[in-house]
Structure formats: C-alpha cells, structure tokens
Amino acid sequence: MGNVTDGVFFIPGQDEFIPDSHTYLVGEPPSQDLSLIDPGLMGKGEYKIKAIQEMGIELEVIKRVIMTHTHLDHIGCLAEILQHIPWAELWVHTLEAVPLEQGDERTVYGMEMFRGMCQTQYGLKPGAFTFQVHRHLQGGDNLEIGGIGWEVIHVPGHSMGGIALYHRPQQILIPGDVVYADYAIGRFDLHGADASELKQSLLRLGELDVDILLPGHNRIVKGLPAGYIRDTAEQWGPYLR
Ligand SMILES: [Zn+2]
Ligand SMILES: [Zn+2]
Asked: Cα separations (Å) of 99 from 94, 105, 133, 186, 193?
C-alpha cells in the first residue's frame, strides 16, 4: 500500500473466496484532480476508502472512477465507494459502458452460474450494477488528468471493453486483467471474452516500453524486464486461438 511513484498510489486487493481487484489512485495530489481506478469486490469499499484516508489523501480531490473493465471483482464495491464520493464521474470504455447503463449485467457476472451464486451470497438484486457513465472511453483517447497523461488502449479479449492505461514518460502500464506478473494472463472464458482478441491485445501491449506494471491482481512489478509482455504473449500464443 502507498505511493508507487509520483502521482500513483496503490491499495492492494483483499481477496476473499472471490478475488478483490487492486485499486489505484492516479494524479498529483496538489492538482486536486485524482482518479480512482477499479474500486474492487463487494464489501471492500470501506477498507479502500479508509486506506486512501490513511495515505493522507482527502476524498474531495477524487473526481472520477475509471474502470479497466467491469467484472464483479472490480466493480463490486463501486456503489459503496460512490457513497463516499457521490460527485465522482464514472468513465468506462463504451463497449462496457452501454451495457452498464442498460442494466445488462452479463459482463459483470461473466457467466450465468456465477450470477446466481453471487446474488445469493452477497444479497445482490437484479439490476444492482446499473450505472450512469459520464464518459464513454475509446482506444486512442488521451487523458490529461491530475497533471499526468494517460493513453487509453483498448485491450479486448479478457472482456469486451477492457482498457489499459499507459503513461509513456515513466513507462507505467495499468493493464487491468489482461496481463499479470509471473507470465500470467487474464482468463478468456467469460461473457464477451475472446482468446484471439486477447492474443492481439497482449501483442499490442508487448510493443510498449513498460517499467512499472500495475495489474488488477497479484504482485505489482517495478523494473519489468524488457520484452516481458511480448514473451508472455508468445508463451500463451498456442492457447489463444
Ligand atoms: Zn479481476
Ligand atoms: Zn476481469
């Protein structure tokens, strides 16, 4: 937990029997324009908010929530978080923003069996994950937020509207669940997933120079070896078609 580098804060997920995504806060605090990336699993909102306050960050400066994608382990506590920052906008790639606005929860739950299980376990009502999205993101968007520039890269394959955020000057990549440390990649069997698209997305990210990898789960990496993502794509290539 804490400051990864200037303007990037890390709040680790607290996995239960379902994983809880990591949360990142990006932006220089003096800008008073911070963005929260991926709230996390149901029930983790209080913990994440407390962790942010313990880092000395005022909630007032958090102006938006950006989703790398809208799976349950990333969006589960969005409503809890928004209770603390009700002014915050929600920014999501358009391919997952539209279902989110329409109350189509297939991407959130990923599979039917999982929907029933989670609704029972967490007391979630149908339509619990219906949200107004203030900005529909697209690949190629350049976000200048909080004194830091982020390129939006559309990386479908793990989910339809998955995005990676890339800060080129410091070579920081926030890839959501597309690629993790230790040559792991996101699953590609859920609603809207596609193995060959995931391969293309990995190859696309493999073209970037990345020093700091901030994935949705597991450990974060500083000083990522050159070619790491390309090697990961190659290792998984035979399984991704
Ligand atoms: Zn995840
Ligand atoms: Zn995911």
From this structure: 9, 7, 10, 21, 15
Q: Hey, where are the domains in the chain? A: 2-239
Over the stretch 6-45, which tens digit does the pLDDT of each residue have? 999 999 999 998 999 999 999 999 999 999 999 999 999 9
Distance 5 CA to ligand 1 centre (A): 23
Domain 2-239, CATH number (from 3.60.15.10, 3.30.310.40, 3.40.50.300, 3.20.20.80): 3.60.15.10
Q: Which ligand is nearest to the CA of 22?
A: 1
Three-state DSSP state, 89: strand
- Confidence (pTM): 0.98
Which residues have CB less than 5 Å away from ligand 1 (the ion)? 21, 73, 177, 216
